[in-house]
Design a protein that fits this description.
heterodimer; A: alpha/beta; Rossmann fold; 2 domains; five-stranded parallel sheet; four-stranded parallel sheet; 11 helices; 15% strand; globular; B: 179 residues; alpha/beta; three-stranded antiparallel sheet; 30% strand
């Protein structure tokens, strides 16, 4: 297969296993490119991409922008805070206005789940979802599983536990889809209040004891507690959360095996993960960030190749 | 569809030895020269030449890299089939080096145009030469000519020249295929 089965990247749910394999294969090439003295290829010099961020982001936004620039695309950036969205413009109007300036592709982050899908049905451009509310964050899941493949050789057959705020996490949902699609065993771990009710229907196990979960897994993906999405109290105090679900050196050393530690960032040091773990050789957090650029280059390149002139 | 043998295994062998000899004539000890095989099919030719240089001229330290040009092509989004990339592996900087591009068939010259851009990511070469096994003269779209040439062929555009290698296709032979 040399072409994606989709025209937009809206979620991992819509991808096939072969799509992920193609994205990884392409990302391998781009990883070599970004380690050259000159880290740029001219492939997308006639493509214009708009980055629309209706929600805050540092890493994802920089990563997308860098990926686009490394591919020689023209890039325009837009953030909701400084735009006419504040004046009451609708999403379709905002995007159509941008598209009328001859934009080929839209990378969008939006607080509402399904915003990307809605857009893909209503405007004429290739859409990449860079996070839609608590729904999906497909490029994060791709770079996470790509990093696992890089560290452990493959994703299939590996045991992965996702720890923390599963309820509000688009990273968790996309990761579950991506891991299951590639044949990994997945468990989630966290306070019962932060685990969605029907999560087992996705074929994942639930573990509420962090130690047991870590003893079981090959990879632990530690999620951030998303205080900004919590309108009620899901656990008594942050201190209590850290005591039960925080990863520290002591618990890591007490395991009778070595595990790989991941974190999608931004890290709340001392809450879900301590500094000595985050900065240890078990952690591949910065590899994840580096792979993010290669993965996003691959996704953009493969989707752009489907836009006919 | 009919196919005609352009070069037999024996002829290819003779040509390879001549090309290797010409390379040595110009680059002597290859101290400041590097071979770059153009992916995907130039690498077979490059590796053959490398073997001859090692075996018959005892040049064991010739630097060799493989260059993929997919992301530099000028027909991205223009063809029916999507372009598939191959591996680039160049473990040295070409800054100030004499670079020899190696490809099996020189046709429109567009691949070499892309390779000229691609190689710049690895430094500024002192000079770049081109070696091709088959030169389809009269088919060029760009002002690009080979410095070392195996055989010139006057094929028309509907015809296809296919170079087969023992290690990849089971035999050494060059076919002229016409519809």
């Amino acid at each position: 297969m040399s072409e994606l089965s989709v025209d937009h990247l809206l979620g991992i749910k819509y991808l096939k296993k072969e799509d992920i394999e193609l994205i990884f294969k392409t990302a391998d090439h781009f990883k070599e490119v970004i380690n050259r003295p000159i880290k740029k290829v001219p492939s997308l010099r006639d493509v214009t991409i708009a980055n629309l961020f209706f929600e805050n982001s540092t890493r994802t936004r920089l990563s997308f922008e860098l990926a686009e620039k490394r591919l020689s695309a023209d890039v325009i950036n837009f953030s909701a805070a400084s735009s006419s969205v504040k004046k009451g413009e609708t999403l379709i109007d905002t995007v159509n206005n941008i598209l009328s300036m001859k934009v080929d592709m839209v990378v969008m982050r939006h607080p509402n789940p399904g915003a990307g899908i809605f857009l893909s049905k209503n405007v004429n451009a290739s859409i990449i979802n860079a996070g839609d509310g608590a729904h999906e964050h497909p490029t994060q899941a791709l770079l996470d599983t790509y990093s696992i493949r890089e560290r452990l050789g493959s994703v299939g057959g590996k045991k992965v536990v996702i720890v923390g705020d599963i309820l509000h996490s688009r990273v968790a949902l996309s990761n579950i889809f991506a891991l299951k699609l590639q044949g990994a065993d997945v468990k989630v771990c966290g306070p019962k209040t932060l685990i969605p009710k029907y999560i087992e229907s996705l074929g994942v196990g639930v573990e509420t004891d962090l130690r047991k979960a870590l003893q079981w897994c090959d990879v632990a993906n530690m999620l951030r507690v998303q205080n900004e999405r919590m309108d009620i109290s899901y656990f008594p105090t942050t201190r209590e959360y850290t005591q039960q679900f925080g990863l520290n050196k002591k618990i890591l050393d007490s395991l009778d095996k070595e595990i790989v530690v991941m974190h999608p960032g931004p890290i709340n040091r001392g809450v879900e993960i301590t500094s000595d773990v985050a900065d240890s050789e078990h952690a591949i957090i910065l590899n994840q960030v580096q792979n993010g650029v290669a993965i996003r280059m691959a996704v953009i390149y493969l989707l752009a190749s489907k836009i006919k002139q | 569809m009919s196919q005609k043998v352009l070069l037999s295994a024996k002829e290819i062998d003779i040509i390879l030895h001549r090309l290797a000899c010409q390379l040595v004539e110009n680059h002597t000890d290859f101290k400041n020269s590097v071979l770059i095989g153009i992916q995907p099919r130039g690498v077979f030719l490059a590796e053959r030449l490398l073997k001859i240089l090692q075996k018959e001229y005892a040049l064991n330290n010739v630097r060799y890299g493989r260059l993929d040009i997919t992301f530099y092509r000028d027909d991205f989004r223009r063809g029916e089939k999507p372009l598939e990339a191959n591996k680039t592996k160049i473990d040295f900087i070409v800054e100030d080096q004499r670079v020899i591009f190696i490809d099996d068939v020189l046709y429109s010259g567009r691949s070499i145009r892309a390779a000229l851009t691609a190689i710049q990511s690895f430094g500024r070469p002192k000079e770049i030469e081109l070696l091709s096994l088959i030169d389809r003269r009269f088919s060029r779209h760009l002002p690009i000519q080979p410095d070392y040439n195996g055989r010139q062929v006057d094929a028309i555009n509907e015809e296809k020249v296919k170079v087969n290698w023992k290690e990849n296709d089971g035999e050494d032979v060059v076919y002229l295929i016409s519809k």
